[in-house]
Amino acid sequence: MKKILSGLLALVLAGALFTSCGAKQEDKVINLWSFTDEVPGMVEKYLAANPDLGYTLNTTIIATTDGAYQPALDQALQAGGKDAPDIYCAEAAFILKYSKGDMQDYAMPYKNLGIDIDKALKDSEIAPYTSEIGSNTNGEVDALGYQTTGGCFIYRRSVAKEVFGTDDPATVQAKIGGGSGNWNAFWKAAEECAAKGAAIVSGDGDVWHAVENSSDKGWIVDGKLYLDPKREKLLDYSKALTDNGWSNGTQDWSDAWFADMKGAGAKPVLGFFGPAWLINYTIAPNCGGSKVGEGTYGDWAVCNSPVGFFWGGTWLLANGKTKMSAEKKEVVKGIIEWITLDTSNDGLLYKWANGTLNGEGGTKDTVASGVVMAKSNGELPFLGGQNMFDYFVAANKYANGKNLTQYDEGINSIWRDQVRAYANGSKSREDAIKDFKQTVSDTLGIAY
After folding, report:
1. Could you tell me which of 311, 265, 302, 313 has the C-alpha nearest to residue 287?
2. DSSP-assigned letter for residue 268
3. Which residues of 328-350 are buried (b: 16+ CB within 10 A; e: fewer)?
4. Is 320 in contact with 108 (CB distance < 8 Å)?
5. Which helix (H) or strand (E) holds 153?
6. Neighbours of 168 (CB within 10 A)
7. By C-alpha distance, which of 355, 381, 205, 407 is closest to 301?
8. Beta bridge mates, 269
């Protein structure tokens, strides 16, 4: 476990500081749990901008690697006491466990913080899928995020010119069937890419994220494992990509996958499916340069995906089980509102969208508020000057938040292992499906 305490908090815990009313200063601490330093950095900014609150931050960061975060968070929530999380974060892979599932009892509905949530959602034009995911089984909002992670097709301009004769986003979108709701045009485009010696994607994982979150139903229906026909089609897609050489056969997050982002793979790759964060935090750092003319920097653009989907995201929750004072509850309310609902130019959402949280020239990202996105500038040199918000705003509206379950992280991994086994010829289609169902039953106890 990694504990992050400010120098001020160290003095506080030594009993050196007291509030004006005589209470010990250690009572004025916000306990925050997260799996990255992103949200802690935001809260630090908020508290620094509001020094009159007199609160300090006690942050616990545990990476999601090897599933370490959830068990530790659950234990901290269940243990309670003065060190229990006041605010905690959950990502898309397991947010439903905390907003609708086994740990939902520990989430405090935003309305219980004093937020007029229905009005706030409407006034901010929050992307519907984000509030759907963060709502409990009674329809109350327990969690919201600051990002939106609706996905587009992120493509190499030079490869598009070689294959299609143009890098124009509208033309490329038409070629891949962007916005059509099906994959028919995309596979024709894959044939065109192959004829020019290019791969349409790096690996089947690039298609999977679009397939997964565009399905009609999730992995669990009526308490049993369910294989949505759209997700089952990944078997065919992965097999076609492998057999026809339409991809470079990489696995996402591997060195080979990153190599394709800088054009160093076996074949040039047309594109990747993903949200704005994939551009900022994955493709850009692996493009082989930091300015136009270096690596593939500036050789990218975005257009709509054939199907609407989202990938990833972080949601903020408040602990409903702590004996939070009225004063602390007001501070927690202010933090959560500033990060998830404030549409002013001083709110986190505007600063995040325009790359100004840490000063001018920072990373621009898509955010949950349509109001903020409408007044923000998404032009990126990395995309050849294209305004990515022109496409990502629509992508966020198309995303569906109703096909998630709290077991997605584990089931997805099992499913993709079986899909790869079928695609590389080591299993039949029937055996891959059978082994998938049995493995889910054996490891997660979910009947099929």
Report:
1. 265
2. -
3. bbebbbbbbbbbbbbbeeebbbb
4. yes
5. strand 152-156
6. 15
7. 381
8. 199
pLDDT for 156-199, tens place per residue? 999 999 999 999 999 999 999 999 999 999 999 999 999 999 99
DSSP 314-364: EEEEEBSSS---HHHHHHHHHHHHHHHT--STTSHHHHHHHT-BTBTT---
Contacts within 8 Å (CB) and 24+ apart, 2-7: 2/60, 2/61, 2/62, 3/58, 3/59, 3/60, 4/37, 4/40, 4/58, 4/59, 4/60, 4/61, 5/58, 5/59, 6/56, 6/57
Task: Give alpha helix (H) positions in 82-164.
Answer: 95-99, 117-124, 128-133, 157-164
Q: How far apart are CA 280 and CA 59, in angstroms?
A: 25
Could you tell me the maximum CA-CA distance found in the chain, to the nearest angstrom?
A: 77
Centroid of chain to Cα 98 = 16
One-letter identity of residue 163: V
- Backbone torsions φ then ψ of 317, nearest 5 degrees: -125, 150
429, with CB counted inside 10 A (0-12, 13-18, 19+), is: middle
Give the separation between CA 448 and CA 443, rounded to whole angstroms. Answer: 13
The contacts of residue 196 (CB under 8 Å, 6+ apart) are 162, 163
Rounded (5°) CA angle 376-143-75: 135
Taking only the tens place, the pLDDT of each residue in 393-415 is: 888 877 878 888 889 989 999 99
Q: Which of 153, 151, 148, 100 is nearest to 408 (CA)?
A: 100
What's the rounded Cα separation, in Å, for the pair 310 and 398?
Answer: 9
Residue 393, token pair as written in the block: 């705003």
121 to 36, 78, 139: CA distances (angstroms): 26, 30, 13
* Whole-model pTM over 0.85: yes
